């Protein structure tokens, strides 16, 4: 192929996008629709993942001490817990601090109920707030802490170990399921959009069957006929995915700003700067789909 | 130039379109192919430009054994054969100029040479002034002239014309015939299937009559010979 012929193919491919008018628009729209759904889903899965990660890291263990534990024993227990390799942090919450926290967490109405309790008749025990490195080890660490009662045989220091038994296990299951379903769904959507688009392109090529037959009568080789179509498909894929990425990112930016400024939601979406690579992925996918769609659909009609 | 030896063609649906045709067409000849509809004229033409392959027998065009041609060699053989059809078969979204230039783009002709040559043939068919018109903006006769320009632009040795005047009024038809005669005069072999009695009887050339898949008559300066 001479350079001039190559330029000719590029020119013809670009012209064809315009010559085909509504057919091109239809192809572009079908690319936009499928990539958009795909993109929304990717963003959703990414954010659910981030939220799940955060929820994981917030899982903690509360250890309540018996009321008669003295300062020395308390510090020994704290050291023993801190020495466990899974544990990242141990905070001591005194019964006084516990009462204040409790009152705060009850809000304005609950304050009345707790009135009358002060440091002299505080019903709450001292406690530890424990964080671990790996959330899945929580049940295991909780058991280990409970076992400290057996090692301190003279006086059992621990009244109760709480870690939201059940809730944590459910949370793990839910986040894992969301991830799995999410990825299966994204993969399925990607394949589906490919077929949708290759079908649209097939329709446009079907309409041009006669032209292909004429070109072959004039002595055009298959390669010569294929190139402009190939360029056209690539351009349509590029245009479609560019528009999609633009819509997605502008929309996401607005949404993230809205979510971030709404205090009652108490959450932030992933910052848009972390997501550019996914935009790039959608662009590449769009172009590949365009190329693949034309090549696949053309093969049938070139056997004239 | 074109030679058929005992050529048979049976379509998958069982139609025996050609049954043992042997013929020889020399360089620079002008041949009418006549006969009733469905007699095998179109199959005869299609075999020459390799749209169909013979079931049996040999066809050679310009020294190529057309029946045994490899799929990817077909385009190169077709570049030496100009084809003209009743329904013109122009690329609908290209201008007259672009349609003719397409045949030269296919053979990767240099750009400058292409411009010159395309304008030259458009001038020859008398449509230089309508180079930028789309096919839909041209009359039937004009479209056929563009098709002829496309067919001759690469100087093929043969032109295959399948009822080129079939869709045109008598006056326009004569214009097309004069053009084909001129092209033949310049040295191109022309094989033309036709139903036009006036043309065959007036512009006397070799006549090959096909009926029921056989050549029943082959005369130099022959007559149309049918009453329709």
Automatic annotation (TrEMBL), chain A:
Residues 59-148 form the FtsX extracellular domain. Residues 184-303 form the ABC3 transporter permease C-terminal domain. The chain crosses the membrane at residues 21-46, 181-206, 227-252, 275-298. It is found in: Cell membrane. The keyword Cytoplasm does not apply. GO terms for cellular component: plasma membrane. It comes from the Bacteria. GO terms for biological process: cell division. It is a multi-pass membrane protein. Pfam families: FtsX, FtsX_ECD. Part of the ABC transporter FtsEX involved in asymmetric cellular division facilitating the initiation of sporulation. Belongs to the ABC-4 integral membrane protein family. FtsX subfamily. This is Cell division protein FtsX. It comes from Paenibacillus mangrovi. The gene is ftsX.
TrEMBL record, chain B:
GO terms for cellular component: plasma membrane. It holds the Pfam family ABC_tran. It comes from the Bacteria. Its main location: membrane. GO terms for biological process: cell division. Residues 2-228 form the ABC transporter domain. Homodimer. Forms a membrane-associated complex with FtsX. PANTHER family: CELL DIVISION ATP-BINDING PROTEIN FTSE, IMPORT ATP-BINDING PROTEIN. Belongs to the ABC transporter superfamily. Part of the ABC transporter FtsEX involved in cellular division. This is Cell division ATP-binding protein FtsE. It comes from Paenibacillus mangrovi. The gene is ftsE.
């Amino acid at each position: 192929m001479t350079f001039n012929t190559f330029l000719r193919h590029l020119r013809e491919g670009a012209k064809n996008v315009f010559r085909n008018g509504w057919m091109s628009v239809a192809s572009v729209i079908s690319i936009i629709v499928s990539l958009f759904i795909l993109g929304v889903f990717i963003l959703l899965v990414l954010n659910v993942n981030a939220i799940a990660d955060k929820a994981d890291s917030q899982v903690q263990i509360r250890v309540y001490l018996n009321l008669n534990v003295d300062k020395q024993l308390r510090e020994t227990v704290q050291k023993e817990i801190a020495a466990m390799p899974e544990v990242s942090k141990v905070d001591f919450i005194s019964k006084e601090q516990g009462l204040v926290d409790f009152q705060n967490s009850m809000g304005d109405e609950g304050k009345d109920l707790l009135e009358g309790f002060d440091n002299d008749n505080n019903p709450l025990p001292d406690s530890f707030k424990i964080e671990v490195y790996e959330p899945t080890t929580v049940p295991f660490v909780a058991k280990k802490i409970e076992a400290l009662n057996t090692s301190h045989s003279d006086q059992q220091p621990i009244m109760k170990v709480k870690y939201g038994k059940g809730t944590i296990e459910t949370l793990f299951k839910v986040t894992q399921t969301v991830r799995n379903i999410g990825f299966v769904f994204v993969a399925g959507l990607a394949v589906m959009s490919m077929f949708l688009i290759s079908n649209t392109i097939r329709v446009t090529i079907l309409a041009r069957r006669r032209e292909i037959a004429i070109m072959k009568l004039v002595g055009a080789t298959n390669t010569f006929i294929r190139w402009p179509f190939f360029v056209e498909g690539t351009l349509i894929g590029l245009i479609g995915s560019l528009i999609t990425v633009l819509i997605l990112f502008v929309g996401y930016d607005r949404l993230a700003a809205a979510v971030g400024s709404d205090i009652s939601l108490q959450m932030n979406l992933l910052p848009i700067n972390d997501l550019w690579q996914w935009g790039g992925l959608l662009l590449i996918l769009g172009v590949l789909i365009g190329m693949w769609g034309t090549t696949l659909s053309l093969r049938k009609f070139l056997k004239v | 130039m074109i030679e058929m030896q005992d050529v048979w063609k049976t379509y998958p649906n069982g139609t025996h379109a050609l049954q043992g045709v042997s013929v020889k067409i020399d360089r620079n000849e002008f041949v009418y192919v006549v006969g009733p509809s469905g007699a095998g004229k179109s199959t005869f033409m299609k075999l020459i430009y390799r749209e169909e392959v013979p079931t049996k027998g040999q066809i050679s065009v310009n020294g190529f054994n057309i029946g045994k041609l490899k799929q990817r060699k077909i385009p190169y053989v077709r570049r030496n054969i100009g084809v003209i059809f009743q329904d013109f078969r122009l690329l609908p979204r290209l201008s007259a100029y672009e349609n003719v230039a397409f045949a030269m783009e296919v053979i990767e002709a240099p750009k400058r040479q292409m411009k010159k040559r395309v304008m030259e043939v458009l001038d020859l068919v008398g449509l230089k002034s309508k180079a930028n018109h789309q096919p839909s903006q041209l009359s039937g006769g004009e479209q056929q002239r563009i098709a002829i320009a496309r067919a001759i632009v690469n100087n093929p040795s043969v032109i295959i014309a399948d009822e080129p005047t079939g869709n045109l009024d008598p006056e326009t038809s004569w214009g097309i015939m004069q053009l084909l005669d001129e092209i033949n005069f310049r040295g191109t072999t022309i094989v033309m299937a036709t139903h036009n009695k006036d043309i065959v009887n007036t512009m006397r050339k070799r006549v090959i009559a096909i009926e029921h898949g056989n050549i029943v008559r082959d005369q130099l300066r022959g007559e149309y010979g049918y009453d329709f």
